[in-house]
Amino acid sequence: MADCLFCRIIAGEIPATVVAQDDELLAFRDINPQAPVHLLVIPRRHIANSAASEEDDAPLLGRLLRFGCRVAAEAGIGDSGFRLVLNNGPDSGEAVPHLHLHVLGGRRLGWPPG
Ligand code: 5GP
Ligand code: ZN
User: Fold this and answer.
1) Which of 40, 50, 98, 104 is the best mutation target for the ligand 1 pocket, counting ligand atoms within 8 Å of the beta carbon and taking the most?
2) Counting atoms of ligand 1 from 1, which one is nearest the CA of 97?
């Protein structure tokens, strides 16, 4: 989608600090980190959010979660702990309508979330 921010990052039109990628997924640093480690993992294929995914997307969603765990470990927070977040819709604060998994860690995270 030409007007989608994260599709433009995938296309290389907007720079990002990429930490890992494969043929389906891209992981990069969040531009406004909320923790010492704050990465985003996105599918190369545009899906608005996890609520908009379909049954056929289940394998991709599984790989997205696995990829989030992998980049967390590679960032050094695999043992200290981390949080994976998928925001969906207005009440969640979702701002970018391209599915993205937040990977947050490197400090004690509060619960419940704000
Ligand atoms: P949401 O609130 O939609 O779940 O999260 C969107 C995330 O994308 C936010 O954490 C925000 O900081 C991040 N973000 C927004 N624009 C950019 C950008 O141009 N580059 C990067 N790397 N992150 C972005
Ligand atoms: Zn997109």
Assistant:
1) 40
2) 3
43 phi and psi angles, rounded to 5 deg = -75, 145
Confidence of residue 1 (pLDDT cuts 50, 70, 90): confident
Beta bridge partners of 40: 28, 102
> CB of 18 closer than 6 A to ligand 1?
no
Active site residues: 100
Residue 77 has pLDDT above 90, yes or no: yes
Q: How far is the CA of 42 from the centre of ligand 1 (A)?
A: 11
More confident residue, 85 or 114: 85
Which bound ligand lies closest to the C-alpha atom of 46?
A: 2
